[in-house]
Amino acid sequence: MSPPRDTIYALSSGRPPAAIAVVRLSGPRAGAALEILTGRLPAPRMATLAKITGRGGVTIDYALALWFPSPNSETGEDVAELQVHGGRAVIEAVFAALSVIEGLRPAEPGEFTRRAFENGKLDLTAVEGLADLVMAETEAQRRQSFTHMTGALARHAETWRQRLIDALALIEARIDFSDEADVPEDLVTPAIVVVRALENEIGAVLADNRRGERLREGLVVAIAGPPNAGKSTLLNRIARREAAIVSPYAGTTRDVIETHLDLDGWPVTLLDTAGIRDSQDPVEIEGVRRARERAAAADLVLWVIDASRPLNAQLPPQAGERIWLVQNKIDLVPEQVRERNEAECQIHNTKAPGVNVNPELASEVNKELITSNEFPLTKCEYHFTVSAVEGSGIARLIGQLASFAKDSMGGAEASLVTRERHRRALEETRAALNRALKPEMRGDEDLLAEELRIASRSLGRLTGRIDVEDVLDRIFRDFCVGK
């Protein structure tokens, strides 16, 4: 017989000081610990006012005590909670009193949720949804994570698995009882019908353009361009805070600065990168390398240039749908040229292929470029003229960023796949189903049955029913202590 598990305790509410702090206990000694601290065991699931007594009979606080006997608790074990006043000294005194009770120890990160998983209270996709709900920063992320926490993917996976088992049962009946008179001659055909339907359904789930993962992780937008074009000032203006150091000297930004934004409910990570230029400074060389690397991996690049300088030497190395040209420092351009730039911007933003820009509408700094057609700005998805210092043009840029985020992630709340682990398990399942659908499998029921078993095991790993020890530590390590 294995020894009884430790009873764990932790602060399950926010960082003190706070109005209320929730101290949670889970394990076989939770009830005994509650009796030691409060003198009695409350009625199950009823909040009771209690005096908490520490070492030497000293009163620590008056608090609400709650008792949840197993198995009807969050973790499936005996669970107790104390809702004390949220001062640091109060919490430390409660922890000191708990630490001397035999069989108790502080909880590790995610240990409460892991016990809930091990006791069948949550499947693995619900655990991941809970972790994402705790970390959600936007309304769209909250909706998506809540859907997963309440079992959206798990329900589909279990339904698929049960249908697979039914199909497998037909194949195995054909293998084991082919000589029985009351067993139909053709059991493979109805099994194949089920397999083909499952392959189509899982394929449709996977063909979601990774919207679920993108919403969970947030859209990545890199601000790149030549040095001293105002990239850091633009980041601060969009973020509405001093997130990056700004100076008039080129090369101030050496490393990538990340800022997380909520644009109309959509998560966006804005990256301020080092100015891209040739340099002999080894630190700046590394900064430029990182800037190029992050810009290449970003969902969108805002290529920022100085509107008061000729464009030829400032343009991005290549054009593309995911590169938006931002002419900054428009406040340094004369008013007449600024008006021409605005007209020019409107022409470029038609995004019609082969637009011929009227040189008379072009600013002096752009005329040579446009007439030579060396790098027509219509090749960029959008072209903006802004002043990060004054704020002009910023509202339009932010509005387009929000629209881009919505177009990229809209409808992602309904996506069943939100992590690479989900996608990999479903891809393995689909691959096994595809192998099972090959014509040659019709004559080899043993191999057909094995492919269906592989598909079933892949779905089982998705929800944590089988063979998930190798992923548990990775999942729970990112939980906070007390959850």
- Major β-sheet profile: 6 strands, mixed
SS summary, helix count: 16
The end-to-end span amounts to 28 Å
Strand content: 15-25%
Strand order of the largest sheet: 3-4-5-2-1-6
Radius of gyration: 30 Å
Q: Oligomeric status of the shown chains?
A: single chain
What would you call the shape? flat
Mean pLDDT: 80
- The helix fraction, in percent, is 40-55%
Number of strands: 12
* Helix/strand/pairing category: alpha/beta
Compressed to H and E, one letter per element, the order equals: EEHEEEHEHHHHHHEHEEHEEHHEHHHH
Instruction: Extract low-pLDDT stretches.
Output: 244-254, 350-379
Summarize the helices and strands and which ones pair or pack.
Elements: E1 7-11, E2 18-26, H1 30-38, E3 48-53, E4 59-68, E5 79-86, H2 88-99, E6 104-106, H3 111-118, H4 124-135, H5 139-149, H6 152-176, H7 188-206, H8 211-217, E7 219-224, H9 231-239, E8 257-263, E9 266-272, H10 282-297, E10 300-306, E11 323-328, H11 335-348, H12 364-372, E12 382-385, H13 394-409, H14 420-436, H15 445-463, H16 469-476
Parallel strand pairs: 1-6, 7-9, 7-10, 10-11, 11-12
Antiparallel strand pairs: 1-2, 2-5, 3-4, 4-5, 8-9
